[in-house]
User: Which sequence fits this backbone?
């Protein structure tokens, strides 16, 4: 399943909805469906809030079930950001948030990150079975 959304705040809810639709179609267990939704929410929110992508640029989300795993791919035109090397600064108690990268690292495997033709490309794997 592939979805595209402009890099604006409404993209986050749209992409969460896509993740939920995919989870149902792929018959993921409820706990895996919830993890997928949180991973999609955290990464897409990071793109929108911190990535600096032009609002008219697109976030592309691809989801594919492969046996006991879900392959999650994001592409965006924001600033280069490799989550494998990003420093964890812990939660931001005053404004909320700040735990997204840690959650993504804990609940999924970062399979690859690259930057090509002005776009970030992130591949995650979520074990579901």
Assistant:
């Amino acid at each position: 399943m592939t979805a595209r959304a402009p890099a604006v705040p409404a993209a986050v809810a749209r992409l969460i909805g896509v993740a939920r639709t995919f989870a149902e179609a792929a018959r993921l267990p409820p706990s895996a469906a919830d993890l997928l939704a949180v991973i999609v929410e955290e990464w897409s929110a990071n793109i929108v809030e911190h990535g600096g992508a032009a609002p008219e640029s697109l976030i592309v989300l691809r989801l594919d079930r492969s046996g006991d795993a879900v392959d999650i791919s994001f592409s965006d035109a924001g600033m280069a950001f490799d989550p494998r090397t990003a420093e964890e600064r812990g939660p931001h108690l005053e404004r909320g948030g700040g735990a997204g990268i840690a959650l993504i690292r804990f609940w999924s495997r970062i399979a690859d990150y690259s930057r090509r033709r002005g776009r970030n490309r992130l591949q995650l794997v979520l074990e579901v079975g």
